[in-house]
Amino acid sequence: MLADPYRGETQEVYWIVGIGWALRHATPVRPGAHPGGAWVPALCEVWMRVPFATLWPRRPPSAAVDERCPQCTEAVAERGFASRNWDF
């Protein structure tokens, strides 16, 4: 992930629901940086597969998932990362 000179010193992480998972994990990999099905690391040291894009006007199935990984939540709080949910 490249640093954004306009954003300051805070790193941003994205909460995604990987293929086969039922909770969100935080990843520093920007959405769209890897194709659907690619493996990306989470902050809790778990590897997950990037979900495939949902066609418009459907709503991504992951949009209903609110539960977050406790280890990733702790890592985000400790490191002071900015975060946001991201659905494919």
Explain how this protein is built.
There is one protein chain. The chain is of the alpha+beta class and about 90 residues long. It has one domain (about 15-85). About 10% of the residues lie in helices and about 20% in strands. The protein has one helix and five strands. It has one helix spanning about 70-80, and strands at about 10-15, 25, 40, 45-50, 80-85. The protein has a three-stranded mixed β-sheet, with helices on one face. Strands 3-4 form a two-stranded antiparallel sheet. Strand 1 and strand 2 form a beta hairpin. It starts with 11 loop residues before the first strand and ends with a strand.
Strand-pairing-aware structural class: alpha+beta
Q: How many helical stretches? A: 1
- What is the helix fraction of residues, given as a range? 10-25%
- Quote the beta fraction: 15-25%
| Mean pLDDT across residues | 91
Give me the strand/helix succession: EEEEHE
Outline the biggest β-sheet.
Answer: 3 strands, mixed
Determine the N-to-C terminus distance: 19 Å
Which residues form runs of ≥5 with pLDDT under 50? none
The rough form would be described as globular
Q: How many strand units?
A: 5
Rg measurement, Å: 13 Å
The number of domains: 1
Which strands sit side by side, in order, in the main sheet? 2-1-5
Question: Can you lay out the helices and strands and say which pair or pack?
Answer:
Layout (H helix, E strand, L loop, with lengths): L11 E5 L8 E3 L11 E3 L5 E3 L20 H10 L2 E4 L3
Quick rundown:
The chain is of the alpha+beta class. The chain is built from one helix and five strands; from the N terminus they run E-E-E-E-H-E.
